[in-house]
Design brief:
Elements (H helix, E strand, L loop, with lengths): L1 H51 L8 H8 L17 E5 L7 E7 L22 E3 L16 E3 L2 E10 L2
Antiparallel strand pairs: 1-2, 1-3, 2-5, 4-5
């Protein structure tokens, strides 16, 4: 009888570990999709720049979407898998500078993205979010220290910045 209880306890512990690992894997997969989405948006902006000389104006996601979606594969804007906001900003003073960002779920140190605290030069009038929430000044810090349109997490940001 005791042996049976031990076996049931071991099975319960192992199944709990599997469930926890699956949840973390799903979060990492969603983060991979978010990073791919931001890279696709960056490519769309760069194609736009080739045609028009500078990035589209910031401050309004609908206008940004209309400007770049024809340059994105499939012709439509990517959507976050859980409804988190994506952010686009364009510097008013230096109109060649722009920033795209997303908040990731898993804390990580990401190479080859823009890392810094609040991106000075990008105010509320220059930024917009895909969800319509205020974009504010994005914070692109890694390791869970970022904040993209009020969503705290690892900031993943790309663009042309100084």
């Amino acid at each position: 009888m005791i042996e049976l209880l031990v076996v049931v306890a071991i099975i319960g512990i192992l199944s709990g570990l599997v469930i926890m690992a699956t949840g973390q894997s799903r979060a990492k997969a969603r983060d991979g999709l978010r990073m791919a989405d931001i890279k696709a948006l960056e490519s769309g902006v760069e194609f736009y720049v080739e045609n028009f000389g500078s990035p589209p104006a910031g401050g309004n996601w609908t206008n940004f979407s209309n400007a770049v979606k024809s340059y994105i594969k499939g012709g439509s804007m990517p959507q976050d898998p859980t409804g988190r906001p994506y952010v686009y900003c364009r510097d008013i003073a230096n109109t060649d500078l722009y920033l795209l960002g997303a908040a990731l779920e898993v804390s990580a140190n990401i190479d080859r993205d823009i890392d810094s605290g609040a991106q000075s030069g990008y105010g509320a009038a220059e930024c917009s979010s895909s969800t319509g929430t205020g974009a504010g000044s994005p914070n692109c810090n890694d390791n869970g220290g970022g904040n993209i349109a009020g969503t705290v997490g690892t900031g993943f940001c790309l663009g042309y910045s100084n």
